[in-house]
Design a protein that fits this description.
179 residues, 2 domains
């Protein structure tokens, strides 16, 4: 059964079995997305639960003509994590002092560099304040492990625009954090 068919059954008939099937289909992906963003298993578990509660409550607003269910679900997750990222993450990194000027090695892939969580928090905070669109693109690419095409569909941009903004953000962060 497709995602859209399950959504129709849930919205039309309130089927708990269809809800369970849809949640199980995406739970590991959403948990991993939250974990990469929050870097804590308990926080990621709590976030995944909240994301699915919000998604199930918002299912009537899902429009398959605008995005696939997966894209829509990641948008719900991204919005939730954006709203609570600072609360979760600042609690996790409290006491960790990483210089804002910590260098990003230019010979490593950007995604590998961002695995340093304290630096990742600074980078994401910087992007969120300086270029919100770039922030969303980097968040979905790195923490959501989404393709440029999936991100483009979610943000209603062309894939080329998404790629351009992603690589511009990488360049901007390298410049800002390698001084």
């Amino acid at each position: 059964m497709t995602d859209e068919q399950l959504v129709f059954i849930i919205v039309s008939f309130g089927s708990d079995k269809a809800k369970e099937r849809l949640i199980l289909r995406y739970y590991d992906h959403i948990y991993a997305f939250a974990y990469r963003r929050l870097d804590n298993a308990d926080d990621a578990y709590d976030a995944a639960q909240e994301i699915f509660i919000k998604a199930m409550n918002a299912l009537p607003s899902f429009d398959k003509r605008r995005a696939s269910f997966k894209t829509w679900l990641y948008a719900v997750a991204s919005n939730y994590l954006r709203d609570c990222f600072k609360c979760f993450y600042k609690r996790r990194v409290e006491g960790i002092s990483t210089s804002v000027n910590e260098e990003i090695p230019l010979d490593e892939r950007f995604e590998e560099t961002v695995e340093t969580r304290a630096l990742a928090a600074q980078i994401m905070d910087y992007l969120e304040k300086s270029d919100y669109c770039a922030y969303r693109i980097v968040e979905l690419k790195i923490f959501g492990d989404m393709t440029f095409e999936e991100i483009a569909a979610m943000l209603r941009l062309s894939p080329n625009t998404v790629k351009t903004r992603y690589y511009a953000a990488v360049k901007k962060c390298r410049k800002e954090f390698s001084q």
